[in-house]
């Protein structure tokens, strides 16, 4: 393993800007790492070797011309295969879009290119972002670099695995119910769900439009902040995009300090179903925050107990609507079009062949919840619960006076591949702690807080902030990260078994 792939994104950018290394050298080092280990990890669905090297050569040319380089110029990145990328495949982990080459870039993809970030390729994911383990990918599961027999989280397990295996220093994920934070937790990396609407969804293949949010994945809090700054901002092409300045996330990440902050521990996020080692590491994190000068109080959010049920009515309902566009008529897979079948028959055959079991399960559930006679009882009631959850957050951040809320990111560490494949409810419980934030649209982060004593696998600490107060995540996260690194004597990923 070369020293280049062990550097942080900030360190790589500094070395490129100074001329100590070239962007091409950095890119080649990461491409070599992908070639060496990705057959075992399966983080990538598509590696764009030529495109990445072309981007890197352009960064080097800019430096030679004396042009000012951005904070992440020349840094390689792994992009979740849910964002459209002009000229290279976007499959969303599904057979129904196998081989589809988009004619345009998503806004996020365009922003990365404008920031001179080098896109290495597209990462594996649960089909249409529906899952918590990356086992639902039509192209096979991804392994957790800490233990390749275990899941790397989902739906963005490819992005988290690419980070943990040193195949990329930066990655992009999307978070509908925890799909950035849960993979970060189980792989010992950092993942941030920005405020809903803070990062454009234009060109991101939709799963659940009122919940989906793209965000940064990295190995350090500062790297995540630098990437957050690069991809955030108002986009007139996205009707849900927030027209407001990006919070000062990089400044917060460089000046982490929790002295005088009031931190709320969510009462509902512990108890039955939580792994003992996860709670042990979380309790240690609470004590650490107290040592760092934070005031820690317990916060009661009773509606959070209903979040899982509400989410699994809202998300499938919206997915049922969004996936109706995959009808075999316009793009993607087409099955049975031999001239003897009607358009309806071709559509049915295509969806049968192109969608996996989890996608079909959610489409059926969502269609039922939206059907005449059941809309108010199911979807309408779930939206009322969503309002109650939002009010619980508002109460905590308002009259409760807390600056941030904290909890374990996931109830357990990474579980073995296949263990929950036939038990959807057990799989859904992996998102127990992360879902309320998506329902309310708040910002949240997961960062490593140690290894569970039972299995030696990473545990994540979740930090939740009010909408458009994303900088608080980085302020708290940077302070906790620095304190833990000092205590451990190194970043947590240094303890990961070698591939």
Could you provide a short overview of the structure?
With 499 residues, this protein is an alpha/beta fold. The chain has helices spanning 9-18, 23-41, 49-64, 107-114, 157-164, 181-187, 221-231, 249-254, 276-291, 307-322, 343-354, 357-370, 376-397, 424-428, 435-440, 470-488; strands at 44-47, 76-80, 118-123, 170-174, 190-193, 214-218, 262-266, 295-299, 404-408, 443-451, 458-465. The chain is globular and about 70 Å long.
* Helix content range: 25-40%
> Mean of the pLDDT scores?
96
Gross geometry: globular
Number of DSSP-assigned strands:
11
Low-confidence stretches are: none
Strand order of the largest sheet: 1-3-2-4-6-5-10-11-9-7-8
User: CATH H level: which superfamily?
Assistant: Amidase signature (AS) domain
Give the N-terminus to C-terminus distance in angstroms: 10 Å
**CATH arch. level architecture:** Alpha-Beta Complex
CA gyration radius, whole angstroms: 21 Å
Q: What is the ordering of alpha helices and beta strands?
A: HHEHEHEHEHEEHHEHEHHHHEHHEEH
Q: What oligomerization state is this entry in?
A: single chain
Instruction: Determine the number of helices (DSSP H or I, runs of at least 4 residues).
Output: 16
Main sheet: strands, sense, barrel: 11 strands, mixed
Share of β-strand residues? 5-15%
């Amino acid at each position: 393993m070369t020293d280049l792939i062990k550097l942080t994104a900030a360190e790589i950018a500094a070395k490129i800007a100074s001329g100590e290394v070239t962007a091409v050298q950095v890119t080649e080092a990461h491409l070599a790492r992908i070639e060496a280990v990705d057959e075992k990890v399966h983080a990538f669905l598509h590696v764009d070797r030529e495109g990445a090297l072309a981007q890197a050569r352009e960064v080097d040319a800019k430096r030679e011309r004396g042009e000012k380089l951005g904070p992440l110029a020349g840094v390689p990145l792994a992009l979740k295969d849910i964002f459209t990328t002009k000229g290279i495949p976007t499959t969303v982990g599904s057979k129904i879009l196998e081989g589809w080459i988009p004619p345009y870039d998503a806004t996020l993809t365009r922003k990365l290119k404008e920031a001179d970030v080098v896109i290495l390729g597209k990462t594996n994911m649960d089909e249409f972002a529906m899952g918590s383990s990356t086992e639902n990918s039509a192209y096979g599961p991804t392994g957790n670099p800490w233990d390749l027999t275990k899941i790397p989280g989902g739906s963005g397990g490819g992005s988290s695995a690419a980070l943990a295996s040193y195949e990329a220093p930066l990655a992009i994920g999307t978070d509908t119910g925890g799909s950035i934070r849960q993979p970060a937790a189980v792989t010992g990396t950092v993942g941030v769900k920005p405020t809903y609407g803070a990062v454009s969804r234009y060109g991101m293949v939709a799963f659940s439009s009122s919940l989906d949010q793209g965000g940064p994945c990295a190995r350090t809090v500062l790297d995540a902040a630098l990437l957050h700054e690069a991809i955030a901002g108002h986009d007139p092409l996205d009707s849900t995009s927030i027209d407001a300045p990006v919070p000062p996330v990089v400044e917060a990440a460089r000046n982490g300090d929790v002295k005088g902050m009031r931190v709320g521990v969510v009462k509902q996020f512990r108890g039955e179903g939580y792994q003992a080692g996860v709670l042990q590491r979380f309790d240690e994190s609470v004590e650490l925050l107290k040592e760092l000068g934070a005031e820690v109080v317990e916060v009661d959010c009773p509606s959070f107990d209903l979040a899982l049920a509400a989410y699994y009515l809202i998300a499938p309902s919206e997915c049922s609507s969004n996936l109706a566009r995959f009808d075999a008529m316009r793009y993607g897979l087409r099955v049975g079009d031999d001239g003897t079948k009607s358009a309806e028959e071709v559509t049915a055959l295509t969806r049968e062949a192109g969608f996996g079991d989890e996608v079909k399960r959610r489409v059926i559930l969502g269609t039922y919840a939206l059907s005449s006679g059941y809309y108010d009882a199911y979807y309408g009631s779930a939206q009322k619960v969503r309002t109650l959850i939002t009010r619980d957050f508002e109460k905590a951040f308002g009259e409760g006076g807390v600056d941030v809320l904290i909890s374990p990111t996931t109830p357990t560490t990474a579980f073995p591949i296949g263990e929950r494949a036939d038990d959807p409810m057990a799989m859904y419980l992996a998102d127990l702690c992360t879902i309320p934030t998506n329902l309310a649209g708040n910002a949240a982060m997961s960062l490593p807080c140690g290894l569970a004593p039972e299995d030696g696998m990473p545990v994540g600490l979740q930090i939740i902030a009010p909408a458009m107060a994303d900088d608080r995540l980085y302020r708290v996260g940077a302070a906790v990260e620095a304190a833990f690194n000092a205590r451990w004597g190194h970043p947590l990923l240094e303890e990961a078994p070698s591939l």
